[in-house]
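Recall the central idea of this unit: under ordinary conditions, the amino acid sequence of a chain determines the structure it adopts. In this exercise we apply that idea directly, starting from the sequence alone.
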Amino acid sequence: MADEINLLVTLNSGYLDPLKTMLYSVHVNNPDERFRLWLLHASLTEAEVASVRQLTTAFGWALSNERVATDFAAGVPLIKRYPKEMYFRLLSGQILPTTVKRVIYLDPDLLVINPLRPLWTVDLQGHLLAAAVHRGVTGIMDGVNQLRLGTTTSYFNSGVMVMDLDQARAKIRLHDIIATIQKYESDLILPDQDILNFLYGADILGIPEEVWNYDTRKYLSYQTRSLNQHEIHWVMANTAIIHYCGTPKPWELASDSKFTGLFLHYQRLQQRLVARLNRD
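Accordingly, the structure predicted from this sequence is:
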């Protein structure tokens, strides 16, 4: 039997409903896999955790509810503007048991539409983690972010990552994160993602965004770069993770993109499953 895949999510209650839809999509498209969900949070209620457990139990998954102490990362600046949960993914090596060696981190605002095992077994080649770069058509944003942050590497998206937690425990330090924020606060746009790239960009293995972190805003960019090869049929057959970056989110009424209907379909199926479980 294949080994258990560790999935990591970090969130507050604001993203609880999208999380359930994302987890449902993982289950439907990976029916023969064994998963353990590591749920990192600081404020979910027992009832909210129970609503997640209802799904993982129905899927046959294990759930580890990891409530992070209220004083953890209390010294990190920008907490008033951004939820502290965004830092938990970077610091997950310090939070999770040392027996956990590797995790796939997933943002709640995405869908998994093809198997995850190739991502789980990716050879990190000695790197701290693997992530994708959202390049657009020309890749010009790499230069913009290098100028903004003073980095020399591509700008990686932190919404999907495969992390070597032993390396994370050795290399990622809370005091480094605090010092970076204090020094570059005025230049930070997405604090945890900027910090990931500033401190650890040289230790990240790049993986194909078209497969593992498909930005739904950039359908035409992907088509252009691939000379029309990566149209919607290619996406459905080859892309594993569709990421609803930016706003509006697909569960919001203002969203009406090519991929909105796909999310709403999975959301409705997940809601039907929960209704059936509640009846039983």
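The longest helix spans residues 260-279.
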